[in-house]
Fold:
Amino acid sequence: MQCIEYLMESEDEATRLEMKTDCRSVEAQALWAGLGPGMRVADICCGTGKTSACLNALVQPGGTVIGIDGSPERVAYAVDHYGGEGIEFRCRDIREPLEDLGLFDFVWVRFVLEYYRSTGFELVSHLSRIVKPGGVLCLIDLDHNCLCHYGIPPRLERTLFALVGMSEREADFDPYAGRRLYSHLYRLGYQEIDLFVEAHHLIFGDLEGKDSYNWAKKVEVASRKLGFDFAEYGGGVEEFKAEFKDFFSDPGRFTYSPLIRCRGRRPLDER
Structure:
C-alpha cells in the first residue's frame, strides 16, 4: 500500500533522504512551531524515520512519536534504524482514515504537500482530524521548488522548467506548495497562525557532496519516471546530465529554494 504514487521512488531513495535530512534544521523548525516535552506527535510521510527520531528527542521526557509512511520498505528501514523508546512506525496510506491512531498534540507535515498539487487542501483538512483540539498542525514546504538558479545556461533553464511543468501535469507535483500553506490553515479556522520564510537549498561556492547527490538523483529519477524527452539535447538525457553537472559544479553558480513553514492551533471550540 503506497502513501502516494511517489515521484522520487527509487532503490536509492532511502540514501537520498538520509543524506538530505539535517536534524539541526528539523529541531529549529519544530521548536519554532511549539514542539516540547511530553507531546504526542504524528510525523506524516516519515520516510526513513530520521526526522521522527529528531522530533522524538525534543519531546522527551514523556513524549511519543508515531512515524507514518505508505512505503513498506521505508517503514522497515525506519524500524531497523530508528525504532526504540518513545517512537514507533506505521505503514499507512495518509489519504485513508487515521483516526484509529488517536489524537495528537502536534502533527508534522514536512515536504509532503508538494506531491499533492490538486488535493493539497483536502489532504490538510483530512489530517486535521487527528490534531486534538488545542493541538498544533505544522506545515512545511518549498516554493519555486527546483527553479531558482543564477548563472544557468538558457537551454538548461528551459529544460528544467519544462521538466517541472511535466511533473505538475503527470505526477501532481506542486513546485509552489509553500505559498499555499497559510491559506490551508486559515480556511480550516486554525488560530494563532504563524509563518516564517527562509532559504533552503542555499548553494553557492564549492559544491558539497550531499547537494551533488541529492540534485543529481532528483533530476535522474524524475526525468526517468516521467519519460521526459529532452528535445533540446541531441544526445538526450546523458547530454542534459553532463550540462547540469557542469553548471552545478561551478562555484560561481547560485541556487536556492524558498522554504515556508506555517503553524496553527486547532480551536478548542469548533462549531
